[in-house]
Amino acid sequence: MKKTIWTILVVLAMAILAACGSGDNNNTEQGSDNEEEELKAIEVDFDVPETAEAGETVNLQATVTYGDEKVTDAEEMEFEYWEKGNQDDSTMVESTNNGDGTYTAEVTFDQDGVYEIYAHTTARDMHTMPKKSITIGDGADSEAENSD
To answer: Signal peptide position in this chain (predicted)?
Structure first.
């Protein structure tokens, strides 16, 4: 009787070890796939001219990619801009989805200054917000004159 119980325990232990061993191999393979997925991130190539004149319409464009794939269905793609040093007084602008991975908006700056612009982008359960600057008119030079 003891020999039968002992044999059953040994067989069960071997079965459990075999199951754990094959599970490790599957997890390793799945881990590799997950690591490849984790290496991908959304990227935003954000185009803004360096300068423009007050009252001029400025085209903002962002190209959104995920790895080598262009993202044509971003959940969010908005531009936020404000005059440098005055981020509390920012303006949000919805972009137009062009269906080819590019998102565009038009903005007009009413006065000279240096403006900061974020491209708020959410896609593939990730969020990024690259920032660029644009100088309108004389930019910081007119700010320095006004502060004197």
So the answer is: 1-18
Please tell me the distance from the alpha carbon of residue 124 to that of residue 145, in angstroms, as a whole number.
46
- Residue 79 has φ and ψ, to the nearest 5°, of -105, 135
What is the SS3 assignment for 10? helix
pLDDT grade for 8, boundaries at 50, 70 and 90: confident
Q: Which two tokens stand for residue 38?
A: 């984790």
For residue 92, the tally of other CB atoms under 10 A from its CB is 10
Express each pLDDT in 28-84 by its tens digit. Answer: 455 555 555 557 899 999 999 999 999 999 999 999 999 999 999 999 999 999 999
Strand positions, DSSP E, 48-143? 51-52, 57-66, 69-70, 76-83, 91-94, 96-97, 102-108, 113-123, 126-128, 131-136
Q: Tally the residues of the chain.
A: 148
The C-alpha atoms of residue 128 and residue 77 are separated, in whole angstroms, by 10
